[in-house]
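sry for the spam today, last one i promise. struct tokens for design, 123 residues
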């Protein structure tokens, strides 16, 4: 359902910044909370951030708190993940996902997933 259009993703040096964009082609985008997850090779999929349908509530995973900022623009059916002070441990495939349950963090509760985008951080 969601297409994760990679704008600004790619390769960056440690300490640098990247901005990811996820655009949903569905008509009911504004009724869903949206999440970002990431998965590094050999690791479990990890919760990164979640934003409410209105954008008024945002929660972050402990490992990205204070460095990453999630936002959304319902008029553009898009969510964003601004990633600052990137570390090698941030290197992973990043996924956006939609859920109708609200501010949940578990991957099993997601209704739709976007295609992943690779973020590479060089040390």
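last one done:
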């Amino acid at each position: 359902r969601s297409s994760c259009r990679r704008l600004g993703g790619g390769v960056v040096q440690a300490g640098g910044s990247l901005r990811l964009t996820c655009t949903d082609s569905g008509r009911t985008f504004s009724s869903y909370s949206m999440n970002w997850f990431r998965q590094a090779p050999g690791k479990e999929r990890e919760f990164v951030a979640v934003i409410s349908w209105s954008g008024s509530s945002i929660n972050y995973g402990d490992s990205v708190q204070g460095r990453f900022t999630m936002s959304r623009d319902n008029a553009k059916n898009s969510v964003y993940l601004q990633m600052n002070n990137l570390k090698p441990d941030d290197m992973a495939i990043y996924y956006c996902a939609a859920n109708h349950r609200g501010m949940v963090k578990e991957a099993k509760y997601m209704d739709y997933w976007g295609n992943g985008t690779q973020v590479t951080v060089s040390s």
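The chain has a mean pLDDT of 91. ok im logging off now
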